[in-house]
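I am sending you the entry underneath: sequence plus fold tokens. Let me know what the token row says about the fold:
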Amino acid sequence: MAEKPKEDLSRIHVPSRFMRESLMDRTVMESSRTQEQLSILPNHTVVMIGGKSIMDRGKLAVFPVIDEILANKDKYGMVLSVSGGMRVRHSYSVALDLGIPPGGLTMLAGTIEEQNCRMLYALLAKHGGVRMVRDNFEELAMYLYSGMLPIVVPMPPHFYWEKPPKYGNIPEHGSDYGIFMFAEVLGARSLVYLKDQDGLYTADPEKDPQAKFIPKISVQELREMDLDELIIERNVLEMMMRSRKVKKLFIVNGLKPGRLTAALEGRDDAGTIIYKD
């Protein structure tokens, strides 16, 4: 007769590299850097449509962008996003006057961007457009590989946990930052910002006729220039310095047909390219 195994009800020991270490230790944190971080969707491009630059201008600006997206849909898998535009700025103005904290402002911005996403979805629904809520992000790959065009809200979901900004009370983590982080975590092929200018300039070309166009620049060099005005949020540059996957982004003029296509093709003449060495 077989002997019954002895019962061992002592605590199970699970080996773990961080079990006895403080996660606040800088050496431990540095050791967590992996040689090759997983790219979840390495063959797809994230395209951010400017709310103020494109959507607020109505069909004269929006319809040509839609046409160009559809012309490239089968060749380049895309995840689309759209910011809130002027309605966000107006809501910020009223909310700041009422004393609403930054966390409240992020919630306002997110709801307005949701409206723009719904409008974009209405235009693209018959072509495979699908509005993605954050709870369904795990289904993103299924939609993409089914030939659909997912549309996401770019505002990061910090909400009440938005940290106090360094200057003023406008949230530091806006739409440009949010969509950059989205592309980074997915390990996207590239990131394209559709604006109403040809790209990045040394100053606002609408205010300064001497402003010089910057066709290509490293993120390190751009931060060192410390320009008074930027066409994208500054913390995008900070995050790009730390990024593991997004090594290049495009800023292109969405009002000029063909520029989005050039960016999808990775061409230097698309607009401005910001890259990480």
About this structure: The CA atoms of residues 162 and 217 lie 30 Å apart. The two ends are 70 Å apart (CA to CA).
